[in-house]
Every structure is written in C-alpha cells, then in structure tokens.
Specification:
Elements (H helix, E strand, L loop, with lengths): L4 H13 L2 H8 L3 H15 L4 E4 L2 E4 L1 H29 L4 E6 L1 H18 L4 E6 L2 H10 L4 E5 L8 E8 L1 E5 L1 H11 L10 H6 L1 E5 L4 H12 L6 E5 L2 H9 L4 E5 L4 H6 L3 E2 L9 E7 L7 H12 L3
Length: 305
Amino acid sequence: MTQNLSSYYVFYMVAKLGNISAASKELFISQPAVSKSINKLEGNLNTKLLIRSSRGVTMTKEGEILYERLKEAFHAIELGEEQLKYENKHEVEHLTIGVSTTLCKYVLLPYLKEFIKKKPHIRISIACHPTYQTLEALDNGSIDIGLVGEPDESFPHVFSRIHSIEDIFVTTQSYLDNLMIRTGKDFHDLVDHRELFKDATLMLMDKENLSRRYVDQFILANEIQAENLIEVSTMDSLIEFATIGIGIACVIKNFVEKELKNGTLIELPMPFDIPKRNIGFVYRKKQYKNPALESFLDFYRNDSL
C-alpha cells in the first residue's frame, strides 16, 4: 500500500473535483502525470475506478467505494494536522461559533452569558451569517460549532436540539382597526383570512432566510397572496416594523413574548397552523480535540438554563 499512497491521493482529488485538469492544477502536476498515476492505481488494484469523458470523469461503483474510504482517511489526516497546530500554538483556549443575527441575540447570548461566568479564560469568536453559510463554515472547518434550525435528514454532522420555535402572524391593534375602517371589512367576521391579506401589507424575512423558506410552504399551500409585500433581512427589523403599525408580520413567537404580553403586538389567529421547528447546536462528528468546544458542549448539556 505504501507505494500507492501518492496514487491514492491523486485519485481522491480527481474523484472529488470530477476533472483531471482541475486536479492537475490543485496538485501542481501535469495532466499526463495525473492520468499515469490513475492508470497505475487501477492496474495495481486490477479494477476500473474512473470513466473518462469530454465532460470530465465519473466514478465506477468500485471507484465510489474507494473514494468514500479515502475521504475518511484523508479527513482524519487533516484533523491530525489541525490538532498538532493547536497543540503547538499554546494559546488560550478558543471557540468559534457560527450563528444567524437573530439566533445570536435571542438564543445564544443567554447561553454565553452563563458560560463565560464559568469559563472566563476561553476566547470566543462569533461568526454571524445566515444558516446556510454557518453550515458551509462547519463543513470547511472555519467554525467549531453552529446554532441553527434543524437541518434535513441528509445532514452529515451532529445536531443537538435546544428547544423549538413557532412562527406566527402579528400586528398592532391600531393597524387592524384602521385596516377594517379602510376596507369596510370586520376582521373578526372573516372566515377566510386570505381576504385580509389581500388588503393588508404583509411583512416577511427575505428569501435568503431559511425561516422565510419554511413559512413560504404554508403561505403558498393556503393560497395567501399579498398585493403589498415588504421583505427585510433581520428579525429585529421585522418586529420593529410590526410594532410601529406598518403591517402584518410573520415573526417567531418566542422572540416577541414581551410585546404580546404587554399588548404592543397582537397575534392573529390563522386558519392553518405552522408546525414548530427545532433549533440546536451543530458540530462535526469527527474533529480535532478542542478543549474549549468540549467545555461548551458539557455546559449546555448539563449546566445551561
């Protein structure tokens, strides 16, 4: 096997990139050298691994089996290198957390407040990005842990649930009163709420936001259409726009509990329910040993509120 290690890596890069030319540039060797290495490996294994075409390369069934094993092996090597770099730096323990602006303010900060009291020596970096960027950062190793809505079943890393959140529609009583005066319709008598949204200004997160994508499923399924639509990029802006009476906003109920309790906002009963969603921390199954991450995982599992 030793004599084939370089050939294994060449095959791994070609399979990963799907192109001999791209692998050649990444490996800093010529395309003929890449092809020769692949041919050598296939000859040693007496197995066809790649099918070449004008569009690139595709793996055979045997190639896919080998690629999955090599992916694990080379990832383990990368983790070992990262661990050595970490150990050699002798720095203060460091934890990098990826999170959206909304979840950072309403969910993460209370955890961090208590965690820092217990572990004041740990240096913490916060990377505020939309959820999809947080997941990408987790994949490439630029963050240690992320706080996100529950990913789908194909998610390759660990998801640890914290609690659930619920999407609701809110507005002010004054906006609702003025809307009924303007349209001559009594909201309380409306059986079909779609009529209300035709006349109202509907406020939603922008389409890049995963919460918006989730809510859109139910808006479309119930044929809700708003002639006047406002899209914003943060939940804070959405809540603020609702409280000053601009329109009806779809927000996360957990984050407007104070406004609902003191009457600043009212929740609109809807003819359909939007199921609650889980949020939690995500981290890689296999990663280098980071004492700061282990301390944080232990805290939120056992000591958090």
